[in-house]
Specification:
The chain has about 350 residues and is α+β, with helices and mostly antiparallel strands. The protein has 7 helices and 10 strands. Keywords: Hydrolase, mRNA capping, mRNA processing, Nucleus.
Length: about 350
């Protein structure tokens, strides 16, 4: 494997396997009349419709995309204000986007808001909860789409990597007084992300230590304490699904002793593309020996290299850094948001 450059990958044309088309005909559609009577072929042939070159704006630059900048600012804030940065330098920042539904807490149905296009919700402004579980039909739908995208590998496009993992997560109660290096209690970390996206939901179930093992080999893959930093919910009224951006901190800890509180089995298909990975997972949870298992289906997009994410965040806007290093973080988040949007726009019917 060749070493990866610290610079962000060059921009590439969007793949056309997945859908990213407007929801209604546009003027470029030969079948669209845009509300007017169709013109005959003879009359249209005498009309010049080619558009001359246009400037991006009256200033010659493209206006800043406030949607992407809001998400970039949120993630950057979560990173630079994260707790335990000095106590546990080995802690990893996890940035992920989950596909799901925003539900009204009172009715249980999908939330309906007076907006026409995808919108970032102000944390705590609506009485909603995010549900990442999808139906088995949706799971198969995304599996088919991603497998097709992997097999086609259009010329000039980066190929998708693929792996199929069978994992067991065992959860243990977090003991702040232990010598595991976990440090302070969860209350000290709860204030870190509340201002920009915690939404009052952080730490609801208390912090846990998660031990992940390979189901086949029984090898321990990781043992971490996960600290939730903050979330941003994105409502997508034109699509079948919404999405959520989450920032977490994963602190490596020694393997706990004793009995786990609960376990979950993950049948995970993982696709990798440049700086990102897409995980399609069937999760079977067992909360207690006598309780029936619960099966969920989830789709998430994650930034693959936490160390690279952190390095670009620290260079963001640094006047002493070269331009490509100053802008690398925003380019990374722009591609992250674009990938999340592509997944949401290709969600079909059949959500829970």
């Amino acid at each position: 494997m060749q070493p990866r450059s610290s610079s962000p990958p060059p921009l590439k044309r969007a793949r056309r396997t997945l859908t990213d088309s407007p929801p209604y005909p546009t003027s470029s559609d030969p079948h669209s009349t845009n509300g007017h009577a169709s013109t005959s072929a003879s009359s249209s042939s005498n009309t010049t419709t080619s558009l001359p070159p246009l400037s991006l704006s009256i200033l010659g630059v493209e206006p800043l995309d406030e949607f992407i900048k809001e998400i970039a600012d949120f993630i950057h804030h979560m990173i630079v204000t994260r707790p335990y940065a000095h106590e546990y330098p080995a802690a990893r920042v996890e940035v992920e986007a989950k596909i799901g539904l925003l539900r009204d807490r009172a009715t249980g149905g999908r939330v309906v808001l007076p907006v026409l296009v995808e919108t970032i919700l102000a944390p705590g402004a609506t009485d909603t909860r995010f549900e990442s579980n999808m139906s088995l039909h949706q799971h198969k739908h995304f599996n088919t789409l991603l497998n097709k995208l992997k097999m086609e590998s259009p010329s000039g496009a980066s190929p998708l990597g693929y792996s199929h993992l069978y994992l067991i997560d065992s959860f243990y109660a977090f003991d702040p007084s232990s010598s595991s290096g976990a440090g302070a209690s969860s209350s000290s970390s709860s204030s870190g992300g509340m201002g920009m996206g915690g939404g009052g939901e952080r730490g609801e179930r208390g912090e846990k230590v998660r031990v992940t093992t390979d189901e086949k080999t029984k090898a321990v893959i990781e043992c971490v304490r996960k600290v939730r930093l903050g979330d941003l919910n994105v409502y997508s009224p034109k699509r079948e699904a919404d999405w959520r951006v989450s920032v977490n901190l994963e602190i490596p800890v020694p393997r706990p002793t004793g009995t786990s509180t609960h376990t979950r089995r993950k049948d995970r298909i993982s696709y990798s593309h440049e700086e990102f990975k897409i995980d399609l997972t069937q999760v079977t949870s067992s909360m207690s020996p006598n309780a029936p298992p619960q099966t969920l289906h989830e789709l998430e997009l994650e930034i693959a290299r936490p160390d690279f994410l952190l390095a670009t965040a620290l260079k963001r806007g640094d006047p002493a850094a070269p331009e490509h290093e100053r802008s690398a973080f925003d380019e990374l988040i722009r591609a992250f948001v674009n990938n999340a949007r592509i997944l949401v726009r290709n969600s079909g019917e059949g959500w829970q």
